[in-house]
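Dear colleague,

Following up on yesterday's call, I've attached the two folding results inline so they're easy to grep. Please treat them as preliminary; we haven't cross-checked anything against experimental data yet. The first protein's sequence and structure tokens come first.
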Amino acid sequence: MWKIANLEIESHVVLGPMAGVTSEAYRKFLKPFGVGLSFTEMVSDCGLFYGNENTLAYLPTQNTDRPVGIQLFGSKIENMQKAIEIIQKANIPYDFIDLNFGCPVPKVTKTGAGSSWLKKPQKIGEYVSQIVALSSKPVTAKIRLGWNDELVNFTQVVEQLEKAGVSAITIHARTTEQMYTGKADWNALAGLKMQMKIPLIISGDIFRLDDAIKALEVTKADAVMVARGAMGKPRLVEQIDKYLRTGVRLPDATLFEQSEYLKKYAQLLIEEKGERQAMMILRGIAPRFFNGYPGMKGLKSILSTNLVTKADLDTILSRIN
């Protein structure tokens, strides 16, 4: 058990936000495997107050995956304040606001949002303190090590965020310039937790149980975030959660179990998005359920190109049964 402000969290496994992936259906799918905390897809503050329908669709509508945080990004305080006011008046189920200062994608950073904030730590503090004052729920933040190897300033950013009143901080152990290349540098964060008064969540390169164990061992973080590493590997969440609770190592999922997991996720996605849109999304995600299993190259190729209906998925997966 750990806490973000007064929010009690059972599991130390956190599901990270991923654009185009972590919709309510995906979060609902992974929750039973041992997710303690999850986030919406990244939500634009401007998209909210302009009433963009696609943006509004990112907001939670059910209680099935709580505790859940709404992750917001933006560059101007007045826009962020308007977005939070809209959320607070909308009577939607959420538990905290998460501020994205970690997205490295150029189309986000060029607007002054995402990890471009890491270049101005003093202004981060001023910005966040106003958001904390306005929000009726706890505020957390996600950052990176820094902008590039010449500007690794996470300690300064963390200090500013703590002073501003955030209730937890997630750190992806790469710089913005690295994007998702190279290796996450967990060692850079060794000793940081001892200087913090709030929870630390470690993120980056959690693809196996041993990655989670090592990341937590090195950083002494309160929780570990899984994102890309859990796509198509729901058992990974269960393995990490089980080990942290009991020290027991669960085996990897069988090929048949992976097929059944995919069917379950597909059904939830269809209920959320409709059949056709769900199949288009699954073209990018379904093949990941069979990564690392021998003899699956042909099946993965078909999944990535031939999915149009649920019947197509069932026919393809029947080859496994």
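Below is the second protein, in the same order (sequence, then structure):
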Amino acid sequence: MKINNYKLNIQKAFSNHFHPGDTFIVGVSGGVDSMTLMYVLNKLKTYHFIIVTIDHGMRKSSSDDAEFVQKEAKKLGFRCFVKKVKVPSIAKQQRKGMEEAARDLRYEIFKKYQKKLDAKAIITAHHQDDQIETILFHLLRGSDLHGLIGMKVLNEHQVFRPLLSIEKKEIIVFAKKHKIPWREDHTNQEIDLTRNLIRHNIATEYPHALLLQMSIQAQKTIGIMDEWVHQWIKKFCTIEKKKLTFHKKIFKTLPLYLQFYLLHHFTKHYLHIHHLSFSWLSGIYQWIVNVKSTGNYTYQHRIIYAYKKGMIILFHRK
């Protein structure tokens, strides 16, 4: 793909959501995806981009990766911030897997820079292959319809992914053609991590076009369902003092799939608990349909649902 084609595709993605003069935080790791993104963004002169790279301490070479990004960003005329953290020790403290801890910390750092520098959004280099892996990952976790959506080009957390429609192989060809330097992330070659297992052993067996079409249809369906949810809440729910209340009997008259959809919506948007698995939602559902006396449903030592005199009470708090 020619540089002008890349520029036009990405320029269109920007113009659909932002305005000339807007400032962005760009996460760059030093890999081929983010280095190519940084190279192309340098051609868009109507926006302001600030590079943030993280020395995560997961490999001996991580400090070299950060130094490399800083050097290349400077060549292109970008401001670049380097944040040094120790993901292994943080993962241990928080009792998280290494990848989960790294991802959470990465976005936490990006968000801090976004707020500090008054940036409109955080830009990442996720591409179409990442989208396929995300959808498959959600399906393997037993996710519901929402899992089919995968990642959005611009999500509710103001994370912007302008390369989401471009395949990884296109990015590599483009980078080689334009002599864009990058550093290889050797963890991408390992298959003992769930994501990389999907990447190397499962994603290659699935028809990508079909999965992407399913994702588009899921987005349309969820749009219709969300409108129904808003109407149901207005008609049957009471919201006061940070609590959302609805009648158990009315809830149980709904078809099973709508009951689950409501629970997903409530738990995600009112309780702010994300990454819900189907089995986790099933636990909430079973509690609601079986509870007969005053009681609570807790999540990580926090009460999120309660039952009293025929009413389900959802504790609406951040």
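For the second protein, one point worth flagging: The two ends are 45 Å apart (CA to CA).

Best wishes,
A.L.
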